[in-house]
Amino acid sequence: MTINFVFALLTIIVSMLLNSRGLGDGPSPTFKNLIFTIVFLVLWFLFGVFRGRERKMSYMIFAIIFWAVALGTSFFAMNLGPNPLVMVNFAIMAPVNGLMFFEFMRSKLFFAAMFLPLIITCIGYLLGLKKSAKNNMIKY
After folding, report:
1. pTM above 0.70, yes or no
2. Which of 39, 52, 81, 134 is most buried, by the most CB atoms less than 10 A from its CB?
């Protein structure tokens, strides 16, 4: 469980440092931010595959709870106005901030993109489970 938490915190912190351009009222995200977003999503996907191959159901539970709490807190913070929870909102939005490079994502559709890490993680985990099950069936 510790490795899951460390992975989540490291990826979120690095994303906040590298991919927060344009989250406030600053300049729009660049192509570089889009690359950071893609790398973030690929990391969560690959970690999900890795944990799925290990058949670590605790990771799937962790990922669902982690992203549900993060998203819930983020939506709560956005509706309260200025408050200390704004940092949680930035932490959740920073990883997918590069998607705002595309004009059509600058609307409310961007909030749907905040679910991408959870969806990508679940897909990666399920693919890892499938690969693990397939390997177990081949072995005698």
Report:
1. yes
2. 52
